[in-house]
């Protein structure tokens, strides 16, 4: 164990990463809590079941097998390889070297599986980059992805390729130093490499390291390669942690709670507005008195604070994969609506409100709103309520619920339904049915020959 200036630098790096990440995640949680209350703590067993199937088991990802299988490589690789981070942190903080090598054969199995997974992650990322930039898959090249969303996806994929490559090279260089260094006593003395010889790694331990290290230059350079890749890997991961909350890759963290708190009601079942129900009850039963706290400030939703916390969590969890939009009949037939864009717009508006709260405090107000400034009535009325988007979403996001709430605002607060619906509403009010016939004429068909 050697504690020196590099360990201090490492600790400062961890501290800065922790501070920056904590601040940003705290503001994300504050933003989500701007949403209205919604009780999703019921049916614990069903929720755990959906979490295991959809989030951990990736059941909806594999519906499209190519993306599904490569996503599983990246997902499993990401989770398991990060276990190796623990060793890097222990080594960085305490000045040890391969601190967990005391695990013996278990350590050998772990590092070998990390190496294989790292190769699979690189493969998966290269396939995803090719689908976006070479094959130009339609759903990954739609107009809502122009600019930052496309760059964000590419940045994160390239970063993952770099981090995994650094991990492989670091491990290979380390294996070489650990197993071959004793053959070069002069170099060992000159560079102070004695600790490598005591790492506990045996010559036949790893499958890929000997092969990769065979491509490297002589021993004088390998020690620099190993140190460079070690620092590159850990600095890259710290940068990744700080970048994550600004990126669609936030789904790496948020998809688990988002799936756990999924809507477990049958698809197509809408909630009633309690205030409207109360009014109807009052019409039929004059003795009924609605509870005072049951009347909402407004009907439906105009801005992000009128949505529920789950709808806001949905927006932060959206991976912008476009599976929803690719099955949306409205989008397919050339209408303006894209459920992915509904989610992206909700997140953009929420971020804007969050920035306003940060700079101007809790009284922040602006002249904008989610409805009209980010999402137009034309998009909303194009929706057929088919639930295709909610079915297709791999992380159980519900764009339809936002569409319905914004529509409710248009109808009940702005009295602005499209003309076809205005006629239907008037008929229902006057005739008790969507048609333009008086109730007295309803049975006329029975007299027809
Ligand atoms: S529910 Fe609406 S937004 Fe979703 S797929 Fe159907 S038409 Fe498209
Ligand atoms: S809502 Fe779901 S399906 Fe649609 S883009 Fe976001 S993550 Fe993909």
What would you call the shape?
Answer: elongated
| N/C terminus separation | 100 Å
User: SS-based structural class?
Assistant: mainly alpha
What are the low-pLDDT stretches, counting only 5+ consecutive residues below 50? none
Average per-residue pLDDT, rounded, comes to: 88
List keywords for this structure.
single chain, 20 helices, mainly alpha, 0% strand, 449 residues
Please give the structural blueprint.
Layout: H1 5-32, H2 44-56, H3 65-94, H4 105-133, H5 148-180, H6 185-191, H7 194-197, H8 209-213, H9 219-243, H10 251-260, H11 274-284, H12 309-317, H13 323-327, H14 329-332, H15 339-360, H16 370-374, H17 377-381, H18 388-392, H19 399-412, H20 419-431
Helix pairs in contact: 1-9, 1-15, 2-10, 3-4, 4-5, 5-9, 10-12, 12-15, 15-19
This protein binds iron/sulfur cluster (2 copies).
